[in-house]
Amino acid sequence: MSETRIQGSSDASKSVRKPKRSAKKAEPAATIQPDRASSAESVVTVSLSAVDRDAMIATAAYLRAQRRNFAPGHELEDWLAAESEIDAALLSGLQT
Predict the structure, then answer these.
(1) Mean pLDDT of residues grouped by 10 in the chain (96 residues)?
(2) Any idea where the domains of the chain sit in the sequence?
(3) How far is the C-alpha of 79 from the C-alpha of 10, rounded, in Å?
(4) Contact (Cβ atoms closer than 8 angstroms) between residue 31 and residue 49
(5) How many whole angstroms separate alpha carbon 95 and alpha carbon 90?
(6) Which of 6, 7, 50, 77 reaches 20 to 30 Å from 67, CA-CA?
(7) At what angle do helices 75-94 and 50-67 cross, to 10 degrees?
(8) Vertex 77: Cα angle to 74 and 78 (nearest 5)
(9) For residues 37 and 43, is the Cβ–Cβ distance under 8 A?
């Protein structure tokens, strides 16, 4: 950790720690584009942060678990199915 010395003070030997910098904002994790990039139509680009995408997947996985009364042993299955569901929904929302 970096330190700064106080000069001109009677306690010049004391050091003061600089405050830590706050965490960086989440950068967009994925850019989803329709498969028709080679056509003459314009391409719509949607950026979604990893945090937002994971929150959507977590909600969908929770709802899947709730529908089966939270029976244990299906957590990974719920997550993967929810992930596919959310990605498909994001892609279909881009296609007209």
Answers:
(1) 48 53 54 56 73 95 96 96 94 69
(2) 49-96
(3) 61
(4) no
(5) 9
(6) 50
(7) 120
(8) 80
(9) yes
